[in-house]
Amino acid sequence: MLSEYIFWFLSFVAVFSAAGMIFSKNPVYSVLSLIVTFFAVAGHYFLLGAQFLAAVHIIVYAGAIMVLFLYVIMMLNLNELEEEKKSLYTKALSFFAGGVLMLVLIAVVRRTEELQLIQPAVYNADLGLTQHLGKVLYKEFLVPFELASVLFLSAMVGAVYLSKKDLA
Amino acid sequence: MIISLLGIVILAVDLIKMRKLVLPVTIAGLIALLGSCIMDWGHHEVPFAQYGGMLLFDNYALGFTMVFSVLAIFWFLMTSDQYEPTSSKKTDLYALSIFSICGAVVLSSYSSMVMLFLGVEILSIPLYVLAASDRKNILSNEAGFKYFFLGSLASAVMLFGIALIYGATGTFDLQTIATTFATGNYSGLMLTGCILILTGFAFKVSVAPFHLWAPDVYQGAPTTITAFMATIVKAAAFAGMYRLFATSFPNHPQVVTSIMAVMIALTLILSNITAVTQTSSKRLLAYSSLSHAGYMLGFVMMSGNAPAKYLMFYTLTYGIASMTSFSILQHVSSIQGGDDSREAFKGLVKRNPVMAGAMTVSLLSMAGIPPLSGFLGKYYAITQLLSGDYLALVIIMILTSAIAAYYYLRLIAAMFTPIENAGRIMTGGLQRGMYIVLTLLLLVTFFAASLLELIEV
User: Using an 8 Å Cβ cutoff, are B291 and B400 in contact?
Assistant: First the structure.
């Protein structure tokens, strides 16, 4: 019962802040309401029992990506309201593209209901728990996990190399 | 095996404190890697040989690892005079190249799609930085940028392909995919995935029509890095491609084979014809490297029923020849103040006979003139295609290699044209030694090639 109330509350917040993100004139407000949307969606993941996904969602999206967005807005100095006029053609085109995407998504939702991919009777509800994921990650996928660190190390060395001052 | 590999990686990074030791340690590490490959050769039951079903060090992987380490040893020795021994630049670049080689080893030994993707990324990410490593040169920056964007697009396409194959089979394991594939009753999802992965690889190995980035990147990047990209990286990408198609899709569906055939034909024709019109020798070598990718793709196309040792032989001999020519190009053009047109090579035979000789031999080898090993590489490619009845492709190969011979010979002719007041070009003793060794290797491998029949890969 309680989780149902939470679900409705989170959904309301998500939809409301997503709309706010589009309608707000100030880019900074847009970004802030996008962050709220991310948090609400992460809450949904929690309700579904996917703790790890929720945590990663907050760290990656609400953390890293949003910081990037904010930096870009700050750098480009988009604060002032200087929205360019868009032609009717552009508007029609973007309306069409968005509409097609919505149609596809609705179709996907309908189809997945028909397919019944998840049988509640046999579904292991613990699948998304961090404990479960950790075991898979450190047993089955240990080698890729370790090698990924080599990848990140090389990316880090590269970034430092490209950005450091020439001493010579 | 992998321990020694990671050992070099960490050492190369740690040694930033002792810069003079970087080169010897790197070489020692690579020799250790080579040694451990020879020790493990033929033993499938070495401890840790399987790494939880993620990596598999069979003879194929060991063979390619040997190719990489031999080429890398030559590359490090050859480029050792490019940076002052104590600059921090050198250590960083060495570390990045070692990381890239680490990716190459993964790419030759993976047995799971996860590792395939990680290998491709470990191979490419250091390369983006290496391509842009001459930070004051705008062309180098452009090269790094272009390579980064197109390379990440290719990775994304490949990842999408892997995801589709996972969706079709529910597994990342190459063998399991192969069994699903062998039943012949697979969905379009699998086929689409296969083609997407092929596309991703085609970007990485730069075959037409996904080759457009290559000439710009090869030209913009510092020449030593270009040598690295054209040899070790190309060999690694082909090793990964061959392993995937030989293990998981041994009898390629007709669509995939035809796509590959069209790619080979396009690559050979476009690259060789464009190469003739180039004035910059560096760009010419870049196009020649493209055309060699066409031959190597021929091996991949026949991967279902031909042993991999011929591809290995091709990558090794092409790698040696290409590395020599790029390295000499670097030397000559730096003396001429960056001029790398044919004019710069005029009279090289008087100015530095060793260099001219090495350059001639390696160009002839790339053109496929016997008794140099480049001839045998092309010969193997052609016989394999003939065994599969691809006569049209063989004809294209022979015609285009005639065009290739023309532009290689034109460069050689320039070297033997006498000029007035030619000053001598000095080379370091190590470099001179390397040129002689590599030239001899091209001859030796030609006569030793019959040993290939003895090994089983």
Answer: yes
